[in-house]
Each structure stands twice: as C-alpha cells, then as structure tokens.
C-alpha cells in the first residue's frame, strides 16, 4: 500500500439522531458541507464520539457513503472499523473501503483484556492489515478499552507496510514521548487523540490530531497548528489554553451529549443522542453554554 502523510486536524464526527433515534442523515451531510470550509484536514467517521457502538452495520456504511459524497475532494476520509474479533474487523474494514474510506482506524480489542497482551495485539493488527484493502491506523484509547498498546508493540507494528499510523487518545504526553523514542518507522503517522495535549504534541513534532473538540471548534483547532507552524508559539499556546475548558467539558464532564449540544450552540446540527445516552439537563446545558461563551465560541 502507498504511504501518505497525515497532517492537520480531524473531528471524530458526531452522528446526529432524530427524536425517534433514527439517524439524521440530512444533518450529518449538512455538517460535512459546513466543516468543509473550516480548515479541517479530513474526517473520522465512526469514531468514539460518533456513538459507533450504537449503530448497525447498515447505518455505519450509510454514513461512510454519505461522507464520501459530501466531503471536499481534498479531505482525507478515515473510518473507525475496529470490532472485537479479527474476522468482524476485517469484514467491516473492507466494506468501509468499498464505501469510500481512504484509511481505517482500528480499535484495540479489549473485552478479554487479560489475554490481550503484546503478542495478541500484534497478531490482531498484523492480520487485519494483511487483509485490508486500505491502509490501517492503530487506535489506542485506554479510557474505553482498558488496553494501552506498549511502545514496543507499536514500534513493531509501525514497520508493517499497510499500518501507517496510530491515534493515541491516552492524553499522556510522557507516553507519546516514549512512543517517539522507541524507534517508530520514519513514515509512521503518530496522531494525538485529545485537544488537551495538542500544543505539547506539536512541540514534540506530531503533525496531526483526531480530536472531539474539532466538531465544535474546528477553526480554532486548526489555527493552533497554523500559529505554531508560523513560529507564533505563544499565540498558539494561548489559544490552546483558551480551548482547554471546552475540551474538558465535551470529552469529560458532559460527554457525547455535551459535545452534540456544543455543536448545536455554534451552528452545527448535533441532534439527539441515542439511548442509553441521555440528553443534557437544562442545568448542564446552561453550564456548557457559559463555558463556550467564556471561550469565545458563542
């Protein structure tokens, strides 16, 4: 598979739902059309903030096809395809490829966590990459999987010709430093997975990020990198600090329902969450709105 460099910021795209919990495909498409004009480098469809575990296969592939249709031509389309079994992951990865995905982001299997050591993870990702029609990126998100890929296994996997990178959502800048000093392949794309460490990641030399905050603050996330690249380090740092309370709110305190409501507040179409997630109470909505006002987003 051909190598390509991944730079810039990507949202793990929210999935709007109607009040009856059906997927709101029109709002999904409208969001993409609007995001196309914000400086985003592309999109991750079916990420952790997409309510992916609650989607059927038919819904997942419908969203991928729609994203392919409505994204700007220069935007990279990544799709989250990781499932618990190797066979199911390979199947969904290749169906996503057929639907228009440029690359697959594959979650670490973690249900049988005690058995998912380095050898098991290496075997899993190697087989998926061997059988995938499109390039594969590792997705390390211990918050959800309780699995943390070790630097040594990431280094080994980085040399696979069809594994082109990793999104690390640990939020641990020390860990990212350790990954970079482990001896990754020179063409391996290490991506940051949370805006809370976007500035320090840039200082380490990381060139791309897939961050929930990009859904509701795409221009700001992109501008942090633009300022940094222009040598305006203090301005980049100040903007990152300004966005920090919003990121903490939509990735921690208020979760996906909060992220979707934040999108509503700034002019995107967040829609309803799908059960068992509950919409925000009015009290939480008011608190979140105040955070966004303080950060200058509304």
Automatic annotation (TrEMBL):
Pfam families: DHDPS
Family to which the UniProt record says this protein belongs: Belongs to the DapA family.
Lineage: Bacteria, Bacillati, Bacillota, Clostridia, Eubacteriales
GO biological process, one term: small molecule metabolic process
Residue stretches spanning the membrane: none
Source species of the chain: Caproicibacter fermentans
Active site feature: 139, 167
Signal peptide: none
Protein name (Swiss-Prot/TrEMBL): 4-hydroxy-tetrahydrodipicolinate synthase
Primary enzyme class: lyase
Binding site residues for pyruvate: 210
EC number(s) reported in the record: 4.3.3.7
């Amino acid at each position: 598979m051909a190598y390509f460099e991944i730079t810039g910021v990507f949202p793990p795209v929210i999935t709007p739902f109607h009040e009856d919990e059906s997927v709101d495909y029109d709002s999904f498409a409208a969001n993409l059309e609007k995001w196309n004009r914000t400086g985003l480098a592309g999109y991750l469809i079916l990420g952790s903030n997409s309510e992916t575990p609650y989607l059927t296969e038919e819904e997942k592939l419908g969203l991928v096809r729609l994203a392919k249709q409505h994204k700007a031509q220069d935007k990279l389309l990544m799709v989250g395809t990781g499932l618990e079994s190797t066979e199911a992951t390979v199947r969904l990865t290749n169906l996503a490829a057929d639907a228009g995905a440029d690359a697959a982001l594959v979650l670490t299997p973690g249900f049988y966590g005690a058995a998912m050591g380095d050898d098991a993870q290496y075997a899993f990702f190697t087989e998926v990459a061997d059988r995938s029609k499109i390039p594969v990126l590792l997705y390390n998100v211990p918050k959800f999987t309780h699995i943390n890929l070790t630097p040594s296994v990431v280094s080994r996997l980085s040399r696979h010709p069809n594994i082109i990178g990793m999104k690390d959502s640990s939020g641990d800048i020390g860990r990212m430093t350790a990954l970079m000093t482990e001896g990754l392949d020179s063409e391996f794309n290490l991506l940051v997975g949370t805006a809370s460490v976007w500035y320090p990641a840039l200082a380490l030399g990381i060139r791309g990020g897939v961050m929930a905050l990009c859904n509701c603050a795409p221009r700001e996330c992109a501008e942090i990198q633009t300022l940094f690249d222009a040598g305006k380090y203090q301005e980049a740092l100040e903007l990152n600090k300004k966005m920090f309370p919003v990121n903490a709110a939509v990735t921690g305190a208020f979760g996906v329902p909060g992220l979707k409501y934040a999108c509503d507040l700034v002019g995107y179409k967040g829609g309803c969450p799908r059960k068992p997630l509950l919409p925000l109470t009015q009290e939480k909505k008011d608190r979140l709105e105040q955070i966004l006002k303080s950060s200058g987003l509304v």
